[in-house]
Amino acid sequence: MARGKLRIHLGAAPGVGKTYAMLAEAHRRVERGTDCVVAFVEHHGRPRTEVLLHGLEQVPRRELEYRGGVFPEMDLDAVLARRPQVALVDELAHTNVPGSRNAKRWQDVEELLAAGIDVISTVNIQHLESLGDVVESITGVRQQETVPDEVVRRADQVELVDMTPQALRRRMAHGNIYRPDKVDAALSNHFRPGNLTALRELALLWVADRADAYLTRYRSEHRVSRIWGSRERIVVGLTGGPEGRTLIRRGARLAEKGAGGEVLAVYIARSDGLTSASPKELALQRTLVEDLGGTFHHVIGDDIPAALLAFARGVNATQLVLGSSRRKTWQYVFGPGVGATVARESGPDLDVHIVTHDEVARGRGLPVARGARLGRSRRVWGWITGVAGPPLLAALLSAVDLGLANDMLLFLALTVAAALLGGLLPALASAAVGSLLLNYFYTPPLHRLAIADPKNIVALVIFVAVGVAVASVVDLAARRTHQAARLRAESEILSFLAGNVLRGETGLEDLLERVRETFGMESAALLERASDVEPWTCAGRVGRGRPVDRPDQADVDMPVGDRMALALTGRVLPAEDRRVLAAFAAQAAVVLDRRRLREEADRARTLAEGNRIRTALLAAVSHDLRTPLAGIKAAVTSLRSEDVEWSEEDRAELLAGIEEGADRLDHLVGNLLDMSRLQTGTVTPLIREIDLDEVAPMALGGVPEGSARLDVPETLPMVAVDPGLLERAMANLVENAVKYSPPGAPVLVAGSALADRVEVRIVDRGPGVPDEAKERIFEPFQRHGDAPRGAGVGLGLAVARGFAEAMGGTLDAEDTPGGGLTMVLTLRAAGTRPEPHSAAEPERQAS
Is the pTM of this model over 0.85? Predict the structure, then answer.
């Protein structure tokens, strides 16, 4: 059983006219002959709404007792037993009285839809479940009755019933919404102008979001590649700190304000060892981004501001969201910071948002592991401490006599500080300079590089040994930290690859882009060859680097078997990175093989479809073509018979039958030939500019006079078409419409201009076609409903769509308001560029 359709009237607040609009729609449908009943509508004592209930059949309500009271509810069983075409169910978010079959009214509606009954309902924006917190912050009241957003989003139609706050307050003041004793309280609380304006904005944005989703689906279905409006692309820069979640939510809110906004979160890591950001925090931020509909990217770059700007410009971003620096005030002596640098170098085409958060000026909080060596700033300070520190300390000690033991302890502390800051080499330098200064200034004989007391020799040796030991420990710790960070990063990447292998989600270009981003390369390409003597060919490539035709031309190449290689350009990778690169290369080979298997499966389906069409063609030749031939042969045999003396009327009738059979045979053969041309891809349209009113009258020549009416204004722009193909397509459409139109209801052929397109609508008043069959009627050898075998082989609409697409147009079916079917033929206006077609377009047309 076909599922019923749900239409929802959405409003910003009570009293905007949702129920009134629903009842008005019901009256319109009843006037058109639709079986429509009122399952449950509450007029709340509003006179105008109550008047609209007159003339509509109402299903008696079911009364339930609860806590000593009697409450009327919708009688779901009675509505299902009545089985109307359309049921009116008010207040979708209503909570049913305990004892009802379902806890919520929207669950009752789901049962009606499952039974094939269309439902028209109403709901306020404040009752959507996801907006509960927002509505509470606006009105101060938490809504107890809610409906899941998915229920409303699945509706076939959502109509916004809108009213300005001022008009709604006037309706309230006039007593058209609540009783007079409740008006003052309502105007002072829920119906304040600010509340109504905020709720109205929520409703408008929600409907706009749904309209945008529908527009995106429409553009995809109709292959519209030209941009309609602007699109915001928001890049959120992450550091791995706890403020990342705040930044992601801020970026998502910015994206929601633009049409088709997109959020891309990017984490920049250095090429010589990824930062030691919390893996748990990054995983949480990745999940949050994906839950909000965005994407997470991991990019390697030594210069974080430059890498961030390069990524933002590479994805054509319009806005960049960064967090305020977590550095303390004194730390700004090392530089202006990432945020200030990005804002200064972003240029006029990229807006930078600096977002405050709870971690501002609390310190970085994240230790940084930058490879086997320590960071640049720490190394600089280590060398300053190791080389300049001992002379400064000697100058200070010259003014006070602390004794040799204390002097050596101070120089040892300075060596340890140099080791902690800069690692092994600065500590060795500090130990060497410090030992020389101790020998020269503090061990007898003074001011000479000689040692009189052997005990002092032991002390100096211990001094140097301790300095070297501390420096070695610091250097080893840095190496282990780097190795741990790299292994963690490799495990994350390998886990990502393994998950994609199991799910089969990543395409070849997406995988190559991930390789390029991960290793910070300019371009990535997958090369292959059929044999050792054949030239290399490129199976996929991303990036803007120089083109690579052979693996030996790349900066990095990773072989995959004997006849495939992953080639990267941009820089030479260290040997430790090639292990992960090998995993990427193996995955790229798997993705390529999977894509080819999918293409072979598609070709097999195409061959199966061709076999099906050939089988249907044989059936058409064996039956549908023999029928007119049999009629012609019978009429000719009768005329040639000498045993019967035919009257002039009989002879005329037999000749008319011969003529009709010949015309029918000619039409069938013509459609079969046209379909075979489409199947073999030999339709080559000769496009030229022509007025539509030159072709349209000729398309009506094959139907009886008076059965079609033409309405093509002379002011329409010229169209870029093949006149012959357009005439055949329109003729098939008109003949099909006349065939199903009732007597006395001529088919309307109307033309209109829409932006850079011209639409031709062929409108009939026949029985129409249900939505689930609208695409099937365009398939070859398909006839809708109970059309007799003699009505044709079912090729007319398939040929018409094939010709339309060959000329760069489209052909779709829509319902005619009031009953019937409308064929919408969309053509390119003269002077516009044709839409690009993919390589699979001929196969799609042939199907």
Answer: no
